[in-house]
Inverse folding.
């Protein structure tokens, strides 16, 4: 091979489609159909041929090799020299879509899935400090697999421990600090001292007032956030007018929804599907993705499966996923968590935007396009309307349940989620208070996500953590009116395990952000501190305090009225009112939002919120126990428990 290949001199004058046609690997009808798809969606003709099933990936890249007069190499049978990867960052190889393959006669041979170019020659020469570079052609999948194998150790480090090593102060890897545990011990000692040193009823009064205050504060915070939503919507109308005026001045349609985005203008969108022990439902998400209204030539879907999960690996392969779907096997390692798997997908992502879906998810068909328009609108606003606006890193879709009316528990779960995603989070949007993300349907700007370090693999509620971290790093998160339908957990024991993990993660996230409270206040402002205290820490504290407040209120009320306890009337009244009005506020807001989302047959079950909170309390105290014994334990939620059941509001 020559020491420097002028690629232009070797290019076949025929187009790739014509070469494939002459090689008898496609028909004229298949080529015409692919050309029509390329005309609509843009992109390369080869990808359209592969996605349509007209040609195998291997045959297509053999034709590409013929076009450039280069050898074709199957990296599975002729793998790269692993020693060459010590000089290269796997991220560079992924971005450039090439890998170092061999050294022959002092010439670096690069295996590429892209058309060779002088720029690629110079990049390889500079990276390896060599005087000569040559090329062979391989498939894009071969490049991915070669990187995954040759860079396994480095990728394993980057997805698990890089954040903890580079930014240890924001990582949950170190757990709760010793001084934080000491504060907890001091609190317990002071409380016990109050029972010993204060008059007989002093400790009782202190406990009752404290627990009721914590419970009521959390309820008021969430209620105010929920009722802020309609008022915020009214204020947004004024902002929409300003944006529309600026667009009209630039001879653009006044509203983004009136401006069509042609398919060839749509960027690559990466979808991550982390799955573990999901052999019963993995095929469903692949079918649901087919319903997405987004050019398949612009989709990059990674199904992220654990190396040890043979059952799901087998099921995913048996589902015969389309060509735009790749199965990425996450290398074994600790911690084996969803955020670690997502980080692995992030390493290989080429999309401008990236979203996570769970294995059972059913996103609205237009969700990607809705998110794209909102990102484009944000760019317009920052450029032409309000340059001081923080850059948008993430858009959270609403989460709802397709099996909401399956049983009482799913109905309660549905009313809770409707309050959270249909009222409270939209109400907090634009308030300056950081938004805790949901575990799915978060649409990120990929470059910004990488800049803040991706997900924390040691945090069992990586979504809430990421929302706070994004705010601390100067980004904002918003919500959108698009829904992803999930499966509500229909059995109490799995629900308890799921909720234990969520509450434990909120406690860990609170501890991580409380390590440097002054820095948190400096970066996010007082609203960030209020959000962390009122939502991230306030939610688990409310669940922990609820049974204490309820028990002490009932005991003291009975004790005063029946046994003759001597308690100030004001304390008794305070306990009774907080219990009554706190639960009434939860019931009212949940009922209103659930009625709008699901109808009265689900909304009426909001009346059982006080009982539902007792389940929360059990999970919360279980979370405290795990916080002490194993704060990184990931209790996975099983899916497929209700089969193909569809709620009445959807099936009708």
């Amino acid at each position: 091979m020559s020491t420097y290949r002028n690629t232009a001199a070797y290019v076949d004058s025929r187009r790739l489609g014509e070469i494939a046609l002459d090689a008898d690997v496609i028909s004229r009808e298949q080529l015409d159909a692919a050309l029509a798809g390329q005309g609509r969606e843009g992109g390369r003709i080869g990808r359209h041929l592969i996605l349509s099933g007209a040609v195998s990936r291997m045959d297509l890249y053999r034709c590409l090799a013929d076009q450039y007069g280069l050898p074709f190499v199957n990296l599975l049978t002729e793998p790269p020299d692993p020693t060459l990867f010590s000089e290269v960052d796997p991220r560079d190889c992924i971005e450039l879509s090439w890998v170092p393959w061999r050294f022959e006669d002092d010439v670096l041979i690069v295996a590429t899935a892209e058309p060779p170019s002088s720029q690629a020659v110079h990049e390889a020469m500079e990276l390896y400090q060599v005087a000569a570079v040559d090329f062979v052609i391989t498939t894009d999948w071969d490049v991915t697999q070669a990187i995954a194998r040759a860079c396994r150790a480095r990728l394993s480090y980057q997805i698990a421990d890089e954040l903890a090593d580079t930014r240890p102060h924001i990582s949950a890897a170190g757990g709760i600090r010793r001084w934080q545990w000491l504060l907890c011990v001091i609190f317990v000692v002071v409380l016990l001292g109050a029972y010993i040193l204060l008059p007989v009823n002093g400790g009782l009064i202190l406990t009752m007032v404290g627990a009721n205050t914590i419970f009521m504060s959390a309820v008021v915070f969430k209620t105010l956030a929920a009722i802020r939503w309609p008022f915020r919507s009214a204020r947004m109308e004024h902002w929409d007018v300003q944006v529309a005026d600026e667009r009209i001045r630039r001879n653009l349609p006044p509203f983004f929804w009136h401006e069509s985005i042609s398919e060839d203008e749509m960027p690559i969108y990466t979808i991550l599907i982390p799955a573990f022990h999901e052999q019963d439902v993995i095929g469903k998400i692949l079918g649901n993705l087919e319903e997405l209204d987004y050019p398949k030539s612009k989709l990059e879907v990674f199904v992220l499966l654990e190396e040890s999960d043979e059952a799901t690996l087998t099921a995913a392969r048996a589902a015969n996923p389309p060509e735009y779907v790749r199965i990425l096997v996450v290398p074994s390692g600790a911690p084996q968590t969803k955020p670690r798997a997502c980080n692995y997908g992030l390493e290989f992502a080429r999309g401008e935007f990236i979203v996570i879906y769970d294995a059972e998810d059913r996103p609205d068909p237009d969700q990607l396009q809705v998110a794209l328009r909102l990102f484009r609108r944000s760019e317009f606003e920052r450029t032409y309307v309000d340059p001081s606006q923080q850059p948008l890193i993430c858009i959270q879709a609403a989460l709802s349940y397709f099996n909401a009316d399956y049983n009482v528990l799913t109905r309660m779960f549905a009313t809770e989620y409707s309050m959270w995603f249909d009222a409270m989070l939209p109400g907090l949007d634009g308030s300056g208070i950081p938004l805790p993300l949901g575990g799915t349907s978060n649409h990120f700007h990929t470059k910004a996500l990488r800049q803040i370090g991706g997900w924390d693999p040691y945090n069992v509620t990586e979504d809430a953590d990421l929302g706070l971290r994004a705010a601390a790093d100067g980004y904002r998160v918003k919500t959108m009116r698009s829904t992803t339908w999930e499966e509500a957990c229909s059995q109490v024991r799995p629900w308890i395990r799921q909720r234990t993990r969520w509450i434990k993660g909120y406690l860990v996230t609170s501890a991580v952000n409380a390590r440097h409270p002054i820095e948190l206040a400096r970066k996010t402002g007082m609203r960030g501190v209020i959000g962390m205290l009122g939502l991230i820490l306030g939610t688990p504290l409310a669940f922990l305090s609820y049974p204490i407040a309820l028990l002490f209120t009932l005991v003291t009320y009975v004790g005063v009225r029946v046994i003759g306890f001597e308690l100030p009337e004001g304390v008794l009244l305070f306990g009774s009112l907080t219990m009554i009005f706190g639960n009434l506020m939860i019931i009212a807001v949940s009922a209103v939002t659930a009625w709008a989302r699901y109808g009265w047959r689900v909304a009426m079950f909001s009346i059982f919120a006080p009982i539902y909170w007792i389940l929360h309390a059990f999970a919360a105290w279980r979370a405290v126990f795990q916080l002490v014994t194993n704060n990184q334990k990931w209790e996975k939620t099983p899916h497929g428990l209700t089969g193909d059941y569809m709620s009445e509001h959807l099936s009708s």
Summary: The CA atoms of residues 394 and 477 lie 5 Å apart. The longest strand covers residues 476-486. The mean pLDDT is 89. Residues 7-150 form a domain with the GMP Synthetase; Chain A, domain 3 fold (CATH 3.30.300.160).
